[in-house]
Amino acid sequence: MTVPAFIAAVLVLLLTPGPTNTLLAVGGASAGFRRSLPLIVAEASGYLLTITPLATFAGPYLADHPLAASAIKLCSAMWVLLLAAKLWTAPSAGVPASLVTFRQVFMTTVLNPKALIFGLVLVPHGTFGTVLPWLGLFLLMVVSAGCVWLSAGAAMIYRKRAEFPPLLSRVAAGAMLLFSASLAGSSLGLL
Known about the structure:
The protein is built from 9 helices and no strands. It has about 190 residues and is mainly alpha-helical. Helix 4 crosses helix 7 (about 115-120).
């Protein structure tokens, strides 16, 4: 894969709505851009933890063991469902800055099916030394896309005069529920 093709494919996936991006937007909306910046570190760390072993040695194993890949997707679906429930039951007013935590973004990213696509399809496979430059480029795009999602969330709160709109957590919870159902259906072979 050429560098421009890699950049285009990665950016398309990183900018596509999903569980991690939903959490980043909610984090930006509930705590503002600056206070939510550590969430980008959580996202980058989560992707690295998943992608590095996939690109260096686990890809062939998962290709030969589709049941293991399905189990990973099902675990992802359960995690996203738990996050949807937490967002749905968030207080309706005065939402604390901790509505979205570093741990939640990290775990969601580790379990995010996009990480599997990055690690199994987009990042070239090989030794750690071979993969490292691609991971560096990937991280630059994660930071850029993460800033877009945090900014989008922060812009929502700015428009509402620094009051977190209760409907936003319900909409985010609904989106997370759809992501969870899609993951579960995919892991069980229903979709």
